Amino acid sequence: MSQNSLQAQNKIVDFVDVKSKLMHRFLYHCDSSAMQILLNLYDLEEKIHNIFPSYVSMKNLKRDILYFLRRKDNRSLFAGSLTDAIYDDVNRFELAMYLAGYRQGLNEVAKANELEVLALEEFDIGSMFERRILYQYDIRCDAVEAFYKRCIASHVHGYGEDLVREQAARFSRHILKRKVYTLNHYVDRQLQVNFQSPKNPYRESDYTLSQQELAGLNRKLKKFIYRDGLRIYCSAYWCGINDLVLRRYHP
User: Fold this and answer.
1) Contacts for 219-223: CB closer than 8 Å, 24+ residues apart
2) How far apart are CA 120 and CA 117, in angstroms?
């Protein structure tokens, strides 16, 4: 291998490393400017600008926490405090998983070819040049639905699952776990009225979770962040394949 080739290869490796470091800065150091730089790089290289993750997770998470703490009178207080504490963290993780899935979908040339054949059976070529949305959010055709399920089964239920599981475990261990185990320290306190003690009518409620309850919450959060990340990865992966087809008609 020539010296020029080695230098070119080293430049590529360094560039990939820069992207990894930018993602790490965003996920683990809350650096929003790092994500903006990363998105700009992807826009220049791969024309990626359709990044629209659906932030619907916190409502579902709060419901899960309420059910887990269903025997505690103050469960809504803990559920609200925890979801408020990790709101930005979960949103960052969702964006990272969406970007990973979308980029993977944009590289699925063979699957995009199959989807294009199915699309041309439903739409004429003229309308393909006018469309901005294909099957990203609405699958009414049985053949397309069957193809979607094959895509998810062949890629996501393998590489995609492993990727999301690994990322979710790391993110939970380094970011979310600490906030769960310190929940007792920053939960909002409330005063209760003690009608049987006129000399001391107000007292602060003893709102604390045991170590066993905190450990259970941490396990539930780990499972949730994995399921949520996989849902978003699947959605983004499918959007990437659809957008790859549409790019052929909107160069």
Assistant:
1) 220/64, 220/65, 220/68, 221/61, 221/86, 221/172, 221/176, 221/180, 222/168, 222/169, 222/172, 222/176
2) 5
Partners of residue 1 on adjacent β-strands: none
Convert the pLDDT of each residue in 192-221 to its tens digit: 444 455 555 444 455 688 999 999 999 999
Q: What is the pTM of this model?
A: 0.84
pLDDT in tens, 63-92: 889 999 888 878 888 999 999 999 999 999
Report residue 42 as tokens.
Answer: 């992807």
Whole-number Å distance between alpha carbons of 138 and 7? 47
Angle at 44 between CA 43 and CA 45, to 5 degrees: 95
- What is the 8-class DSSP label of residue 111? H
The answer to whether the CB of 42 falls within 8 A of the CB of 50 is no
Q: Where are the beta strands (DSSP E) in the chain?
A: 191-193, 202-204
Of 175, 185, 216, which is closest to residue 92 (Cα–Cα)?
Answer: 175
CA distance 118 to 126: 15
DSSP 135-183: SSS----HHHHHHHHHHIIIIIIIIIHHHHHHHHHHHIIIIIHHHHHTH
CA distance 95 to 65: 23
